[in-house]
């Protein structure tokens, strides 16, 4: 009787242990899926940041070129204000 009772208890423990292992396996799979989705989203965010940075760099270069052109025009104007027909230089 003791042996039969012990076997029943061991089977009960064994079935509960199988449930714990199954739960662990399920959680492990969910964690792996979450990690995969997170990696994909971070890759997308990285791509978007790179695209925005590229556009900013292009804009900065264009703006720098325009500022250089204005600086060149201003320098030419300061050098010879009479070269521009709109401006009249009056001596006092």
The geometry reads as rod-shaped
Strand content: under 5%
The string of secondary-structure elements, in order, is: H
Judged by helices, strands and strand pairing, the structural class is mainly alpha
Indicate the mean pLDDT. 87
Estimated helix fraction: over 70%
Tell me the number of helical segments per DSSP (H or I, 4 or more residues long): 1
State the major sheet: none
Count of discrete structural domains = 1
**Regions with pLDDT < 50 over 5+ consecutive residues?**
none
Number of strands: 0
Radius of gyration: 38 Å
SSE diagram, text form:
Elements: H1 2-79
Task: Explain what the structure shows.
It is a single chain. It contains 1 helix and no strands. It has one domain. The chain is rod-shaped and about 120 Å long. By secondary structure, it is an all-alpha fold.
What are the main properties of this structure?
92 residues; mainly alpha; 1 helix; rod-shaped
Structure, briefly:
It contains one helix and no strands. The chain has one helix spanning 2-79.
